[in-house]
Specification:
The complex is a heterodimer of chains A (315) and B (353). In chain A, 30% of the residues lie in helices and 14% in strands. Chain A has 10 helices and 8 strands. Chain A has a 5-stranded mixed beta sheet. In chain A, strands 5-6-7 form a 3-stranded antiparallel beta sheet, with no helix packed on it. In chain A, strand 6 and strand 7 form a beta hairpin. The longest helix of chain A has 15 residues. An 8-stranded mixed beta sheet of chain B has the order 3-2-5-6-7-8-1-9. Chain B has a 3-stranded antiparallel beta sheet with strand order 4-11-10, with no helix packed on it. By secondary structure, chain B is α/β, with parallel strands linked by helices. Chain B has 12 helices and 11 strands. In chain B, a hairpin with a 2-residue loop joins strand 2 and strand 3. In chain B, 42% of the residues are buried. Chain B has 2 domains: 175 residues, no CATH class; 125 residues, no CATH class. The longest helix of chain B is centred in the C-terminal third of the chain and has 20 residues. Classes of the chains: A alpha/beta (315), B alpha/beta (353). At the A-B interface, strand 2 and helix 7 of A face helix 9, strand 10 and helix 11 of B. The complex binds iron/sulfur cluster (4 copies). The site of one iron/sulfur cluster (SF4) has 13 residues of chain A, from helix 7.
């Protein structure tokens, strides 16, 4: 995927030189292994700062919210779906964007690699299907497919769904994946087991809100956890308050989440809070055949009302 | 200087003995990360981890701490009395704390224990804590302690410093508090301090530090000019304003105060807050003086690397542990920002008179 870098620079340079856009949003090389930094450039001669590899897991749709200028943005499959969400939810105009689609082969899971390596990692290089990892006194090579972010491993929309230009030919979509296996496992638990499971899952949470803030869906001017009049949630480490934050946030993402994995990737203590949003993705898929962000033509199920809705409570 | 040899075979037993007098804290694995937390009875601290994900800040300054309890129930003899929560707890000991983390308490103390203000909660906890440090023979690649005012064998803020010597630890006992702890653990094999060997370990460790920051010009740069510098928008662009950097940092100290009540009973507690959150500065009027993310990012760095430097004239408010460098979800790197700030206004070309 690193071969994309040259093409990305060329596109950014052209767009800025021809004044097609005012700003280009992409990634620049990070200062620590397996991290790239989202960045914006406004001059054609800065295009060489841009890079692309398996460490571009942050969702760039998050950086479009409330911007006013004409923007070019590099978008993986999931980013493009979140851009669709933004457009459908009137957060940004389609005309304001020049979307450069990046067919994706999955992002690297920095945590999984850190867990597998025998010591501190100082260098990571991608080489086709291999990911080579170096530390002070070791060198390892992993199969790329074994070290993908868990959402990427089961992603079926790797190609951007909306774009003005692609950086490369489309990739083959995965078809033989069981997307909701992890959710089915939890669904099979008894209520007591579920409670214990979520209790343990969320116990390490330090309420830094990186999961919320990394998510392009969480653009409310004031999040309910930050409201103080009335205050809906306490601010201590009380588990009920922690759960309230997570469960409510998940519901706010129902029918909107693209399972981009940005939230999980951002969490400093390694919590897979995606299990909550994924359950709702599964429900939306099973009940209404809905997957978020695939089309500009249809309103999401949870912001649509039909007079013939079968549910009693809504009539 | 007093030194004690602790055979590793006596390590677990010593801690168990000390646990009858102290509440022990140390590095332990929780889920997939290491935190610095209270050690359950019989649980040994994992001395092999480098820097724990969450810092030992919470040993002295928990993320949420009850200040007092109250009731407005007139039938209760304590109605309208603000009572400190009862505690019969033993003094604390932080086992295996790294020298940078121990030094962070020295930095933070300047704020919580000044001529004008003494924070009773922080000071009470700090004073009852004994810091049993562990030198870093193998620092991480993101550690920049040696240019942030401390180092892998730094002693300030510690009561005892242990160095790993294979089958045993060499303990340098630095304070009376440290000596009391060693006695409570039953470690009493006094030895002549192996000063020469120690210096060798220290030099070897320092040589393994590969990260650094430049801070020499910070104090003399004009504050307002730095505040208005052109680089902030670029430096802040990727920031998502989460609390990761400030909550993992051992030297961040900001807090919020909250009341929670049920019926007529309630508690007042304080909990960590973060300059990265918009709510941190939101006024009752609705105005927010740091309403933009760039302003908040700038605040974090200006506070650590300029205001603190000017106010205390004792270096930066960062010990170089590298936690924020490693765990910022979008790779905002304080080493880069510090260097940008430090070189602000530097002549870009040579002028030959
Ligand atoms: S909830 Fe998580 S996975 Fe879903 S869109 Fe937001 S960041 Fe992406
Ligand atoms: S990012 Fe992780 S620690 Fe932070 S609020 Fe979310 S789940 Fe909690
Ligand atoms: S600098 Fe990084 S860790 Fe700190 S608030 Fe910004 S995104 Fe979060
Ligand atoms: S600012 Fe970063 S490197 Fe410095 S002490 Fe805090 S977490 Fe460690």
């Amino acid at each position: 995927m690193t071969a994309y870098t040259d093409k990305i620079r060329e596109i950014a340079r052209r767009l800025l030189k021809d004044c097609k856009v005012e700003t280009v949003i992409g990634f620049r090389k990070g200062t620590v292994p397996m991290m790239n930094e989202p960045c914006f450039i406004t001059r054609a001669d800065a295009a060489d700062e841009l890079v692309w590899d398996g460490n571009c897991g942050i969702n760039l749709a998050n950086y479009l919210t409330d911007r006013k200028e004409k923007i070019a943005v590099f978008a993986k499959g999931c980013d493009s779906r979140n851009i669709v969400n933004h457009i459908v939810e009137n957060k940004i105009d389609r005309d304001q964007l020049y979307i450069v689609g990046v067919p994706c082969k999955g992002m690297i899971d920095k945590r999984r690699i850190r867990g597998m390596a025998p010591g501190e990692i100082t260098e990571v290089a991608e080489d086709g299907d291999a990911v080579r990892v170096k530390g002070r006194d070791f060198e390892e090579s992993y199969d790329r497919k074994d070290v993908l972010q868990s959402n990427c491993a089961v992603c079926v929309h790797r190609n951007p769904v909306v774009y003005d230009e692609l950086v490369a030919d489309e990739v083959t979509e995965q078809t033989d994946v069981d997307r909701f296996a992890d959710i089915a496992e939890i669904e099979a638990m008894s209520p007591e087991e579920k409670r214990a499971y979520f209790e343990e899952l969320l116990a390490p949470c330090i309420r830094c809100y990186a999961c919320r803030n990394a998510c392009p869906l969480c653009y409310c001017p004031t999040c309910f956890v930050d409201e103080s009049q009335p205050q809906w949630v306490g601010k201590s480490q009380n588990p009920t308050d922690v759960w309230t934050f997570h469960f409510l946030r998940a519901y706010h993402c129902a029918g909107r989440c693209t399972d981009c994995g940005a939230c999980e990737r951002a969490c400093p203590v390694g919590i897979n809070m995606r299990l909550l949003t994924k359950k709702l993705n599964k429900d939306a898929f099973e009940k209404w055949g809905w997957e978020a962000g695939l089309t500009l033509e249809q309103r999401p199920p949870l912001d649509t009302y039909r007079p013939n809705d079968p549910e009693e409570f809504i009539k | 200087m007093k030194c004690i040899k602790i055979d590793k075979k006596q390590w677990a037993g010593g801690l168990e003995t000390a646990a009858s007098t102290y509440r022990l804290f140390g590095p332990v694995k929780s889920g997939e990360v290491y935190e610095f937390a209270a050690l359950a009875p019989g649980r040994e601290p994992d001395m092999a981890v480098q820097n724990t994900r969450t810092s030992p800040r919470s040993v002295v300054y928990p993320q949420a701490e009850v200040m007092f309890e109250y009731t407005t129930d007139e039938n209760d003899p304590d109605a309208h009395v603000m009572k400190e929560p009862e505690t019969d707890e033993k003094p604390r000991a932080a086992i295996g704390i790294r020298p940078c983390d121990a030094y962070s308490f020295v930095l933070v103390r300047r704020n919580f224990d000044s001529a004008e203000h003494q924070d009773v909660y922080w000071l009470r906890n700090y004073e009852e804590t004994t810091f049993i440090g562990q030198a870093c023979h193998n620092p991480c690649s993101t550690c920049f302690c040696t240019t942030a005012g401390c180092g892998p064998f730094h002693e300030a803020g510690l009561d005892v410093l242990l160095a790993d010597a294979g089958d045993h630890y060499v303990a340098r006992v630095l304070t009376d508090k440290g000596e009391t702890f060693m006695k409570a653990a039953g470690w009493d094999a006094g030895i002549d301090c192996p000063d020469q060997e120690w210096e060798g370990w220290k030099t070897a460790a320092q040589e393994k530090i590969v990260s650094e920051v430049a801070t020499d010009r910070l104090a003399n740069i004009d504050t307002l000019a730095l505040h208005d510098a052109g680089f902030w928008d670029d430096a802040a662009f990727s920031c998502i304003n989460c609390g990761t950097c400030t909550y993992l940092c051992p030297t961040c100290w900001c807090f919020d105060i909250q009341d929670e009540n049920k019926g007529r009973k309630g508690i007042r507690y304080r909990c960590w807050d973060s300059c990265m959150f918009p709510l941190f500065t939101l006024h009752g009027s609705g105005h927010n003086p740091r309403g933009d993310k760039t302003q908040r990012v700038r605040q974090r760095f200006m506070h650590k690397l300029k205001y603190y430097v000017d106010r205390y004239e004792n270096g930066i408010q960062c010990v170089g542990c590298g936690r924020c460098v490693q765990h910022c979800p979008v790779n905002i790197d304080i080493r880069n920002v510090c260097n940008l700030m430090n070189s602000f206004g530097e002549a870009e070309s040579c002028s030959v008179a």
